[in-house]
Amino acid sequence: MTAGPDQPPIPTDRRGTLGAGPDGDWQIRFERRLPHPPERVWAALTSPDQQASWMPGVTIDATEGGAVVFDFGDEGRADGLVLAVEPPRRLEHTWTWPGEPPATVRWELTPDGEHTVLVLLHRPLRSESVVDYAAGWHGILDAFGAHLDGADLGEPDYAAFHDLYAAMVK
């Protein structure tokens, strides 16, 4: 793993995993322990006012069939539809990115005392795209956690994230 010369190493507990899922397709999985109750995490994930705070350009209409948009400006845009909603435990939606096969993103929230374990699973993915997706989700989840903590994250080090996940697929 590399990080920029002025950047500390990426903590192990913030790293995602990528590899083959049970059916052989590529997937990305992140597990983050957040020092907030599930209801607070759920509100940050599903409230339009809060979505803009952790990811400008994201819109998740947390109703079955609701629209999902992750607009990254010049980088592109992912669209989807909400497949399942179980407040405050699970949100699942499709993910359609130009030139990529359709995928599914699942957000699972599990209480852990007064904390929440957030698991994000994105699958199926092409092996050629998995590193870029992992780096992107890492940055998004860091911003999500910073929002919950009331912190200012600053600009994510996507180059370090990319290097970290590229090393996992070699």
Automatic annotation (TrEMBL):
Pfam families for the chain: AHSA1
InterPro entries reported for this sequence: ASHA1/2-like_C, START-like_dom_sf
SUPFAM superfamilies from the UniProt entry: Bet v1-like
Biased composition (Pro residues): 1-11
Residues covered by region (Disordered): 1-25
Domain Activator of Hsp90 ATPase homologue 1/2-like C-terminal: 36-148
Family, as annotated: Belongs to the AHA1 family.
Annotated protein name in UniProt: SRPBCC family protein
